[in-house]
C-alpha cells in the first residue's frame, strides 16, 4: 500500500505568494517519482493563522479547484508554531507522513521527492537543512549563529540550520503530540522524540513575495522561549555569578581590614557605592531570570488551548471520498 502524504503550510497574510506556492507544491505532488511513493489520499493543507488579508479566500478558491488542496482556518492568529502543530495534529488522523514547509517558497520544494524517498527507506524524521545562509541579512545570520551556539552550550540537541522544514512519519507526529507544553518550540522537541532520522540539504532562497512575518520582537521572544523551555542553565549561571560575587566581596573585606590595620584609612565612599550598585544590578538580573521561569510555570499551568479551528476543509476532504 502506498503511503499518504500531507504537506502542511502555515500561512499568515500570504496572499502574495499563495498562488505560486500552490502551483509549485501541486506540481511536486504530481511529480512522477513522488507519485510512485505516495497514495492517492495525499493532500496539501494550508493553515490560515488568522490572516487579515485575502489568504483564506484564496485557500477556499484553490481547494474548490483541486481535490488535493485543503485548508484549516484559525479563529485568530495563534503563531507559526501552533499553526504547524494544528496541521500536524490533523494530518496524524489521515496521513502516513507529513511535511511542514513555509508558505513563502524560501524552502526549496524540489527536495520533497528526496524527503519522501528517505521516508520510504525507513526514516521517521527527515530534516531539511540549509547548506548556507547567504540569502539572510548579516544581522539575521549573526543572531541565528549566536542563538544556535547558546542552545548548544546549554546542552539542547538542535539540528543547526534546520528550521521547520521537515518530514515526519505518523508515529513521530503522534510522539510529538504527547508534548503538551503551551510554548512549543518544535525544532527543539522533534529530536527528543527519537526514531531513525536523516538530513536532506538545500539552498534557502529569498522570500518569493511579501515581507517577513517575523519581526525582531517576535524573533527575540521566540529565542527566549527556546532557551527557557529547554534548559535551566541560565538559573545555574546566576548561581555561579552569586558565588563569584561573594568571593569578591570577601576579598574586598580582607583588603579593607588590612588597610585599616596598616592605618591607610580610605574614605570608603567609592567602594561602598560600587558594591551597592553592583549587587543591586546582579539581584535584578537574577530576579528577571527567575521571573522568566515562573512566568513559564504560570502560562503552562493554565493549560490554555494552543489553537482554535474555525473552519476545517481538510477532514471533510476525506469524508467525501
Ligand atoms: N507564519 C504564521 N503565523 C505567524 C507568523 C508567520 O503562520 O504568526 C508563517 C508565515 O506565513 C510563513 C512561515 O510562518 O509561512 C514563516 O514566516 P516568515 O517567512 O515570515 O519568517 P522568516 O522566513 O522571515 O523567518
Ligand atoms: Mg520566510
From TrEMBL:
<dbReference type="InterPro" id="IPR050256">
    <property type="entry name" value="Glycosyltransferase_2"/>
</dbReference>
<dbReference type="Pfam" id="PF00535">
    <property type="entry name" value="Glycos_transf_2"/>
</dbReference>
<dbReference type="GO" id="GO:0005886">
    <property type="term" value="C:plasma membrane"/>
</dbReference>
<dbReference type="InterPro" id="IPR001173">
    <property type="entry name" value="Glyco_trans_2-like"/>
</dbReference>
<feature type="transmembrane region" description="Helical">
    <location>
        <begin position="274"/>
        <end position="294"/>
    </location>
</feature>
<keyword id="KW-0812">Transmembrane</keyword>
<dbReference type="GO" id="GO:0016757">
    <property type="term" value="F:glycosyltransferase activity"/>
</dbReference>
<feature type="domain" description="Glycosyltransferase 2-like">
    <location>
        <begin position="6"/>
        <end position="148"/>
    </location>
</feature>
<feature type="transmembrane region" description="Helical">
    <location>
        <begin position="238"/>
        <end position="262"/>
    </location>
</feature>
<keyword id="KW-0472">Membrane</keyword>
<protein>
    <submittedName>
        <fullName>Group 2 glycosyl transferase</fullName>
    </submittedName>
</protein>
<keyword id="KW-1133">Transmembrane helix</keyword>
<dbReference type="InterPro" id="IPR029044">
    <property type="entry name" value="Nucleotide-diphossugar_trans"/>
</dbReference>
<keyword id="KW-0328">Glycosyltransferase</keyword>
<keyword id="KW-0808">Transferase</keyword>
Amino acid at each position: 500500500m502506498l503511503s499518504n502524504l500531507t504537506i502542511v503550510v502555515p500561512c499568515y497574510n500570504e496572499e502574495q505568494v499563495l498562488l505560486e506556492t500552490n502551483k509549485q507544491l501541486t506540481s511536486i505532488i504530481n511529480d512522477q517519482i513522488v507519485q510512485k511513493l505516495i497514495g492517492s489520499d495525499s493532500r496539501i493543507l494550508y493553515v490560515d493563522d488568522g490572516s487579515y488579508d485575502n489568504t483564506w479566500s484564496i485557500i477556499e478558491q484553490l481547494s474548490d479547484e483541486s481535490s488535493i488542496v485543503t485548508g484549516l482556518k484559525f479563529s485568530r492568529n495563534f503563531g507559526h508554531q501552533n499553526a504547524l502543530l494544528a496541521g500536524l495534529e490533523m494530518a496524524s488522523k489521515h496521513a502516513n507522513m507529513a511535511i511542514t514547509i513555509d508558505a513563502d517558497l524560501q524552502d526549496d520544494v524540489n527536495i520533497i521527492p528526496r524527503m519522501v524517498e528517505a521516508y520510504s527507506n525507513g526514516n521517521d524524521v527527515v530534516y531539511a537543512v540549509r547548506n548556507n545562509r547567504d540569502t539572510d541579512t548579516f544581522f539575521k545570520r549573526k543572531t541565528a549563529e549566536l542563538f544556535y551556539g547558546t542552545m548548544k552550550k546549554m546542552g539542547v540537541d538542535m539540528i543547526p540550520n534546520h528550521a521547520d522544514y521537515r518530514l515526519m512519519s505518523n508515529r513521530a507526529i503522534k510522539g510529538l503530540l504527547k508534548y503538551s507544553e503551551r510554548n512549543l518550540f518544535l525544532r527543539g522537541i522533534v529530536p527528543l522524540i527519537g526514531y531513525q532520522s536523516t538530513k536532506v540539504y538545500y539552498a534557502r532562497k529569498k522570500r518569493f513575495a511579501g515581507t517577513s512575518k517575523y519581526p525582531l520582537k517576535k524573533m527575540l521572544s521566540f529565542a527566549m522561549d527556546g532557551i527557557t523551555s529547554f534548559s535551566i542553565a541560565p538559573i545555574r549561571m546566576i548561581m555561579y555569578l552569586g558565588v563569584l560575587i561573594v568571593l569578591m566581596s570577601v576579598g574586598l573585606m580582607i583588603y579593607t581590614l588590612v588597610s585599616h590595620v596598616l592605618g591607610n584609612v580610605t574614605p570608603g565612599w567609592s567602594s561602598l557605592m560600587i558594591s551597592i550598585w553592583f549587587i543591586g544590578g546582579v539581584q535584578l538580573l537574577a530576579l528577571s531570570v527567575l521571573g522568566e521561569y515562573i512566568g513559564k510555570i504560570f502560562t503552562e499551568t493554565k493549560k490554555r488551548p494552543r489553537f482554535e479551528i474555525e473552519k476545517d476543509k481538510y477532514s471533510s476532504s476525506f469524508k467525501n471520498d
